[in-house]
Design goal:
heterodimer; A: mainly alpha; globular; B: mainly alpha; 6 helices; elongated
Chain lengths: ~140, ~170
């Protein structure tokens, strides 16, 4: 019976991995941040707001995603359309952990010059989730 | 343990295992869905998200290999991919998936737009068209080739922004 229960738990986890929401992703980044540095005060919407708009090297997140992430932007080099980043106006955002990780890795390298920490990702995501519908 | 309790446990066990099986099947279907996307679909999704999903025949296999071997330094941006996804993209372009780090980092990346055939095909395009804000970059095929996303570069459908077109009326 014990084996059965642990099997169930494992299977449930593997099933759950396929269904991310912005909130569950935020929880998972915050969990990593807490594990990496204690004490961890939790994700900060205002820190995420600052990080998003801050000019790091040549670019900020807003360079391509526009200062209002509820609006669509365009790629700094190719001009290709970028759909809005805020989940309130674009429900397709932050539904997949591997996709979110892929883009955080690329865009942080391009913009900040290094990979972002779990705490930074949690802050930015908290800020994006905090944005309501389009103006 | 009474016979009744045993039956109860068996019933619970049955439900638990049925649930587990369903979850397992769900998990496998999800995995299979992700793994069986065709290389063409993976290429269109992964490459086409930032720029035109350039048809593979616009560049030599050796040049594609160089591009795929340095996706972390992709014409000024990081476009790195997971090995599994990279393998699908390589398969679509009919090249071997690159080793972890192929190519010399100091080597300039090949560009479709500097190849001989590209220059020849575009020698009639006026200089001001290239610098037009609607074009922005020679890599922006769709600015003048409306069907570029579908791999359609037919000469008759070319529309250079800012030029008067006799064959096609603008619909907007």
């Amino acid at each position: 019976m014990r084996i059965t229960l642990s099997t169930i738990a494992a299977l449930f986890l593997s099933g759950a991995l396929h269904a991310e929401t912005p909130a569950s992703l935020l929880q998972s980044y915050a969990g990593e941040a807490a594990a990496a540095s204690r004490p961890y005060a939790g994700p900060s919407t205002s820190a995420g707001d600052r990080f998003f708009h801050q000019q790091h090297k040549d670019w900020s997140c807003a360079s391509c995603h526009t200062p209002d992430p509820r609006r669509g932007g365009s790629h700094a080099v190719t001009g290709k359309t970028i759909q809005p980043l805020a989940p309130s106006v674009n429900p397709a955002r932050f539904q997949d952990r591997s996709k979110a990780d892929k883009w955080f890795k690329r865009n942080c390298n391009d913009t900040v010059g290094r990979e972002c920490t779990a705490a930074e990702k949690a802050d930015v995501l908290a800020y994006l989730i905090s944005l309501g519908g389009a103006k | 343990m009474s016979e009744r309790n045993r039956a109860g446990i068996r019933l619970v066990d049955w439900f638990v295992w049925s649930g587990a099986t369903l979850l397992l099947v769900y998990g496998l279907v999800c995995e299979a869905g992700a793994a069986t996307s065709s290389p063409a679909a993976v290429f269109a999704e992964e490459c086409g998200v930032c720029h035109v999903a350039y048809p593979g025949n616009l560049m030599q296999a050796a040049d594609w290999s160089k591009v795929l071997g340095s996706l972390d330094r992709h014409y000024g941006v990081d476009a790195s991919l997971d090995p599994q996804v990279l393998a699908a993209v390589a398969s679509h372009l009919r090249v071997r998936p690159p080793a972890t780090k192929a190519g010399d980092s100091s080597e300039a990346l090949p560009r479709i737009t500097t190849s001989g055939w590209f220059r020849r095909e575009h020698d009639e395009v006026p200089a001001k068209a290239w610098s037009s804000p609607a074009v922005k970059s020679a890599a922006n095929c769709s600015a003048c080739h409306p069907g570029a996303e579908r791999g359609d570069f037919n000469e008759h459908s070319i529309r250079i922004p800012g030029e008067v077109h006799h064959e096609h009326k603008r619909e907007d």
